[in-house]
């Protein structure tokens, strides 16, 4: 088994080390293909926006971390739709299956549609309309070792069409998960978006894509209907703090979100909180799950100091019916509004047999 695990790691190593972009850049504003970071499923959105570790039970988690594919996701179809801000919509479809080969496979498509816009020249003369959309095509493979340890990889061709500007890229995810079924515990590590632009928007101007290292823990209590999920994001960048002035012409004037005052242990703890997403699930019945999430970084960076509200909090639920499950998630980004996420999961093998998911 050990030799097989090392063979997988040796396969991934050249791809990882050939990736030539910086790992220390800021997390926002310096990279392209940011649609890779969106939460496409309702439970991910409800648990803070990112989930690295979960029991093998829901294909949507397996589409985000291939090491979470397994027998319970086999022959499952998932559909996701998100009503985002400013008439932007995005969603995904995915399917997991087995073949005669060992391991588990999945394929999917993720998209974001920015809508239709008025086109005008430099004088303001309207010349027509244009659209903008981006797509992720993905294929995943996972292999289980000794029923406890799983390694998975996902290949993701990327297409972006923004008016007359087009770009094509390639990315890969690599994950590893350890499942302790007796103690209801799962731990995972995930390398996301290892890749580059093949064809940039502007010839000769290649931009880095949002590479990220994540880790996660999930623990369900044995004698109480609760599961706790901890996700650690942006581990490739220890310092997530940066100043952002309220008045660009007067940098000395900053908002209540400014991070310039943190030093020493205070800076360490602030970074620790920004790296951590907390999720809690309440499972009173096998057919129902209520999820609650907290994203500290989102709350600190998008809050309005005069009225913080529920920024950074998220919630949702999943209802598992006889032949399919439906779920909803809502995430508060800003006082201006929240995103609404809808998901449907169908086990194609049980769809007509009357078995529950």
List the helices and strands and how they pair.
Layout lengths: L1 H17 L23 H5 L12 H6 L11 E8 L5 E9 L6 E17 L5 E20 L3 E14 L2 E16 L4 E15 L12 E9 L5 E7 L31 H12 E10 L2 E8 H7 L10 E8 L3 E11 L2 E11 L10
Antiparallel strand pairs: 1-2, 1-14, 2-3, 3-4, 4-5, 5-6, 6-7, 7-8, 8-9, 9-10, 10-11, 11-12, 12-13, 13-14
Gyration radius (Cα, Å) is 21 Å
What is the H/E order?
HHHEEEEEEEEEHEEHEEE
Mean pLDDT over the residues: 87
Proportion of residues in extended strands = over 45%
CATH class: Mainly Beta
How many structural domains in the coordinates? Answer: 1
Which segments are poorly predicted (pLDDT under 50) over 5 or more consecutive residues? 1-26, 252-256
Task: Based on Cα principal axes, name the global outline.
Answer: globular
The count of strands amounts to: 14
Figure out the total of helices. Answer: 5
**What class do helices, strands and sheet pairing give?**
mainly beta
Word description of this protein:
By secondary structure, the protein is mainly beta. It has one domain: monomeric porin ompg (Porin, Beta Barrel). The chain has helices at residues 2-18, 42-46, 59-64, 264-275, 296-302; strands at 76-83, 89-97, 104-120, 126-145, 149-162, 165-180, 185-199, 212-220, 226-232, 276-285, 288-295, 313-320, 324-334, 337-347. It starts with a helix and ends in a 10-residue tail after the last strand.
Key phrases:
single chain; 357 residues; mainly beta; Porin; 14-stranded antiparallel β-barrel; 5 helices; 46% strand; disordered N terminus
């Amino acid at each position: 088994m050990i030799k097989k695990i090392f063979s997988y790691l040796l396969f991934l190593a050249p791809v990882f080390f050939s990736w030539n972009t910086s790992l220390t850049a800021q997390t926002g504003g310096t990279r392209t293909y940011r649609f890779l970071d969106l939460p496409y499923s309702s439970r991910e959105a409800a648990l803070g926006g990112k989930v690295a570790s979960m029991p093998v039970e829901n294909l949507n988690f397996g589409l985000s971390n291939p090491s979470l594919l397994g027998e319970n996701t086999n022959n499952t179809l998932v559909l996701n739709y998100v009503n985002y801000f400013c008439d932007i919509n995005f969603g995904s479809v995915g399917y997991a299956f087995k073949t005669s080969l060992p391991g588990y496979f999945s394929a999917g498509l993720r998209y974001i549609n920015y809508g239709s816009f008025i086109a005008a020249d430099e004088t303001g003369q309207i010349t027509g309309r244009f659209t903008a959309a981006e797509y992720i095509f993905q294929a995943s493979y996972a292999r289980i070792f000794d029923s406890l340890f799983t390694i998975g990889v996902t290949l993701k061709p990327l297409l972006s069409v923004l008016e007359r500007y087009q770009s094509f890229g390639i990315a890969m995810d690599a994950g590893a998960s350890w499942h302790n079924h007796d103690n209801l515990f799962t731990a995972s590590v995930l390398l996301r978006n290892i890749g580059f632009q093949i064809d940039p928007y502007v010839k000769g101007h290649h931009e880095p894509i949002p590479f990220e290292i994540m880790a996660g823990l999930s623990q369900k209590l044995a004698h109480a209907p609760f599961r706790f999920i901890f996700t650690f994001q942006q581990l490739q960048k220890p310092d997530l703090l940066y100043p952002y002035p309220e008045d660009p012409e007067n940098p000395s004037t900053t908002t209540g979100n400014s991070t310039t005052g943190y030093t020493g242990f205070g800076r360490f703890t602030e970074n620790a909180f920004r790296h951590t997403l907390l999720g809690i699930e309440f499972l009173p019945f096998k057919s129902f799950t209520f999820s609650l999430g907290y994203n500290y970084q989102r709350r600190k960076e998008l809050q309005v100091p005069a009225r913080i509200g529920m920024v950074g909090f998220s919630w949702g639920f999943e209802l598992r019916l006889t032949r399919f499950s439906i779920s909803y998630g809502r995430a508060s980004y800003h006082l201006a509004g929240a995103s609404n996420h809808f998901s449907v999961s169908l086990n194609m093998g049980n769809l007509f047999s009357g078995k529950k998911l």
